Amino acid sequence: MSEHQAGIFDRSYTQHLFLEYALGGGHDKNRIRRALRQALALAGERTPVLVAFGPGLWSRLSSDFDFPAFYLEGQVPATQGDLFVWVQADNRGDLFDTGLAVHRQLRDELALQLEVEAFVYHDLRDLSGFVDGIGNPEGEAARQAAIIPDPHPAAGGSWVLSQKWVHAGLEAFHEMPVADQENVFGRTKADAVEFDDERMPDNAHVGRTDVDRDGVPQKIWRRSVPYGSTTEHGLYFLAFSCELDRFDYLLRRMYGLTEDGVRDRMLDFTHPVTSSWWYAPTREWLAAL
């Protein structure tokens, strides 16, 4: 059975680097393949390097299937890239060394359009103070949520959604009473307990995104981490899914684009400035580059 790339499910890493590249015209795909092979060879035992492809670059490298560029009816900035690279490490020094070496292998073939260095904040919390990713499934359920099943030609790989969110309203959020903050998220702040159905506000983030569709739970595997400085900070949202359509559906629920028209209250305090989705192929596919 094909194996997914390393690092997707290991949440022990505290340092993260996200690189998004765009591909110019006229590049030879063999040179791109060679650059990718050299970049992937730089991964270490505790510095995994994951790569995923946007639809444009994927179509150059494979004819197995295609997929559309990110788009959400103009509600969200669509900044679809061609190559996504995620480096993880236990310390910032190793992250820098590996990230720099990877970029040097890729820079002649692709143009860097976004670089975000991020970190684990306290006990896996967002800068809002709320624990992030508590809705993640566990064990085999996590794999079922994140890894594409047979008989899809992408089986063994994963669909990936990346978004850089800027928490422009973070100060105003922290000025609210804790009870009001909890209503925004739909769970308690101190111990991350989700509200029951009776207490859950219609526009709470959990209520908008932890849902079923036609009886199927729309679970995804989240690996988001905070980033930033004193002047700009937020969350680099990263998630993996067995179905590309799950990302579209959950974002539509957040932005009030479904039948009920309810908009996620969280959007009053933060907003995305980039959005792309990608396909992360299997280790076997990458080994054959």
UniProtKB/TrEMBL annotation:
GO terms for molecular function: peroxidase activity. Keywords: Iron, Metal-binding, Oxidoreductase, Peroxidase. The keyword Plastid does not apply. The keyword Nucleotide-binding does not apply. Residues 125-283 form the Dyp-type peroxidase C-terminal domain. Its cofactor is heme b. It comes from the Bacteria. NCBIfam families: Dyp_perox_fam. This is Dyp-type peroxidase family protein. It comes from Alloalcanivorax profundimaris. The lineage of its organism: Bacteria, Pseudomonadati, Pseudomonadota, Gammaproteobacteria, Oceanospirillales.
